[in-house]
# Entry
Amino acid sequence: LSIPSPPSTHPTSSAKVGDRSYPRDQWTNVTPTILDRTTAQLHRQPGHPLHILAQRVRATFSDFAFHDYLNPDVTVEANFDQLGFPPDHPGRSRGDTYYLNEQNVLRTHTSAHQTDLMRVGERKFLVAADVYRRDEIDSSHYPVFHQIEGLKLFDVSSLGPEGLGDGAGVGRTADTGPVHVVDDSGPTSANPVQEVHSRNNSLYLTEDLKKELERLVLELFRGAPSKESGAPLKIRWVEAYFPFTSPSWELEVEWEGQWLELLGCGVIQQPLIRAAGLGENRIGWAFGLGLERLAMVLFGIPDIRLFWSKDPRFLSQFTEGEITRFKPFSRHPPCTKDVSFWLSPEQECGVAANWSDNDLMEVIREVAGDMVEDVKMVDSFIHPKTHRKSMCYRITYRSMDRNVTNEEINTTQEEVRRRLVSQLRVELR
Ligand code: FA5
Ligand code: MG
# Structure
């Protein structure tokens, strides 16, 4: 039985981002749909909720330089190596990251710009940008989202010989006006002060970082319409790990009964500062904030795909500078289709097992675009006699902007099935 080789879905031999062209190689996994997104720049569209939010953050850090136009194509070096990601870090895999080719990726986070901006002399800056990650499909995950990076450097000598840190901010449960802060996450052996830093200086930076970010949260949530308006806003600091900061934290905010992760942050690893050509007399902090999830709670936007909608019923609801409650308009009916298949032997077992949900997501997204709302695995079993593995996924289709005919969905589903065979080499059941 001979398996036909998959048809080439890429008529061109290079991947283009703007006017820059990347020769494809065996690492290239970026798709036309994704490349198409690189020109959208939602965070720069006046009146778009992501722009409104980005401008709020900018206003909160008014003495920081603001960059919102940096190209999304960056080197592997900038996105991973310079930030201290070990060679085997899962984030580097082709399953999680969009490679233009072996040397270049679509940035997976705004931290990719930290070193370069420090090197050209920036000392306090924000970067607002689109970032790209291969991911599952549902109402809160989309392969393109937006982040704001913040970074601030300090002159060690200006902190004085003892630094100014006194450990306040650690072990505190403080009421800062309308914000209720829970913080029991001082540096620990698992989340240590860097050896090259004095404890006092590291604590000083930590205090400054937490104070600035608490101010940001208050600024963003103040006056945001909530079910329990009037009650103090609850936020908490949670110990975290990033290869490029130590100690590190995540900031969470309680919103309608749920803890929501807003950002990651920490004291910048000194080797990054050195790599940017700066000496030991500089130390700094950085944070990276996700814009979509924050916008979803602040504006009450129920589905992450809506940010990409060109429907005037979406865009006309927002006013530059204001955080207002989104009124969902009537949604078109969903349509679900199941697809079941046997994995090929090399996909299902052994050291070469290589079945990846994200590959399946990508195939579906290439065919259905924003018409796919959700993909869930609903069943998987191993045949007792043949030992082959069967998978069943449920695909929910729904358009944000228009009514879709049954016929169109059937055609789409047929194409998805065909490509699962040709590209992922599964056997349909
Ligand atoms: C980062 O991307 C780090 N670069 C953050 C950072 C910067 C840490 C500077 C330290 C110093 P993380 O992958 O956790 O970390 O993402 C940061 C934020 O982006 C999250 O808190 C979340 O708000 C948002 N985010 C992450 N993944 C997604 C996603 N798939 N969809 C929407 N938002 C996301
Ligand atoms: Mg995280």
